[in-house]
Amino acid sequence: MCLTEVTAFGVGFVCRIFGITWTYLVKDQHLFQLPPNLFFLLSGADPCYPNPCTYGGTCEQTKESFTCNCPPGRVGELCEGKTAYKHTNM
Q: How many helices (H) and strands (E) does the chain have?
């Protein structure tokens, strides 16, 4: 799923593929890959649409980008990692 945003800097694309957010800017027939926070800062687009967080994480917009609030058992910038559980017998 991709979101297209026309900005003063060119045409931006935000695509979410297999749980990873990719951001691109097309200007003067050149394609540039941008860090997500720079694209959102330049375009004014909502960094939480589409939700970049995986495995049920919730996205919270910050001043310059976004933060994922991960559910129990998940960690990482996009909730992509698992936490190690220590099993104890009771």
A: 1, 8
